[in-house]
Amino acid sequence: MGPFAGGRLPAAHPLIDGRTAGSPLVLAARRQPVPHTPVWFMRQAGRSLPEYRALRAGTAMLESCFTTDLVVEITLQPVRRYGVDAAIFFSDIVVPLKAIGVDLDIVQGVGPVVKEPFRSPADLGRLRDLTSDDVLPVLAAVTELTKELGGTPLIGFAGAPFTLASYLVEGGPSRDHAHTKALMYGAPDVWHALLEKLAGIAGEFLRQQVLAGASAVQLFDSWVGALPARDYREYVQPHSAKVLAAVADLDVPRIHFGVGTGELLVDMRDAGADVVGVDFRVPLGEAARRVGNEVALQGNLDPAALFAGPEAVEARVREVLSDAEDLSGHIFNLGHGVLPSTDPDVLHRVVDLVHEITLR
Asked: Where are its TM segments located (predicted)?
């Protein structure tokens, strides 16, 4: 086992030694009073930043994710540039799968591609448990980042079992998830066995990031909006709940986000989230009506609105903040990731605007 195996948070963890426990992000996630609404952006560390493109030049995505100094620098870039209230750890949802030996790559312009898709009971043997030794360069980056970030919390993340399974079963990105649903409906025993394994891998990946210093985690279920609520509850929710339960005893805020999941918000809440991420399709007020006041909400400016010009952007930001006025806890974010051609100066202005409007 690696150096981060164990149970409760170490005494030097930022949530324990006081560095991040009172940060706006952690307070908002716990539905406590905040000095201003915290803001960060999904995919804030990435292709929209010229300094990111310069640093990544000539280095493959997965190689970057396993190179400690690159992970540290890329994660810090948007914190320096924008003044966001949290750093999102630079990685990819398939990193733990690569770490345990799955033959996959991230193909530019396509996404994760799996050489031999998983579609039979025999394929389950190709997955093993994740240990901290598998991801030591990743965890070293987490530890280094918590030193560099000071009072700014680091958000760790993992891909949810359904989305990971969809890549493994389809062999890559898919619009209709035909092979995934065929396995789910036609061989439910194989499906549940697959998701059980993936939940263990994702849960351990989250846990190790927290033990190494992350102050919050986000579980991304990018493609689960392809399912109706009944199927989500039967085929997915128990496995997502297992992932989130893997860090429950560490008392770290848990954010759960998916795309096109307006009809699943209550079920995603019930999987064990402290914060439910809302994409741009559902107003925050409506999302709050559905999930109630026992969780905070995150979101949900449409990423495409950032291209609309200063006045339109400000109007949209104010609209989101108005929708969030009566929430018990709110973290400002986009309703999906930053688009690659987004002007970084616009993102900086959004951060400043959110802070100015909500300063208490």
From this structure: none
CA distance 205 to 243: 9
Q: Does residue 254 contact residue 274 with C-beta atoms inside 8 Å?
A: yes
DSSP code for 12:
T
- Judge contact between 303 and 12, C-beta under 8 A: no
19, 43, 119, 254: the catalytic one is: 43
Q: Please check whether the domain covering 24-358 is classified as CATH 3.20.20.210.
A: yes
Catalytic residue among 30, 31, 47, 349: 47
pTM of the model: 0.96
In tens, the pLDDT along 117-133 reads 999 999 999 999 999 99
- Is 167 catalytic? The answer is yes
Render pLDDT for 131-180 as a digit per residue (tens, 0 to 9).
999 999 999 999 999 999 999 999 999 999 999 999 999 999 999 999 99
- Whether 269 is catalytic is no
List the catalytic residue out of 56, 281, 290, 349: 56
DSSP letter for each residue of 319-350: HHHHHTTT-SSEEB-BSSPPPTT--HHHHHHH
- The full set of domain ranges for the chain reads 24-358
Residue 47 known to be catalytic: yes
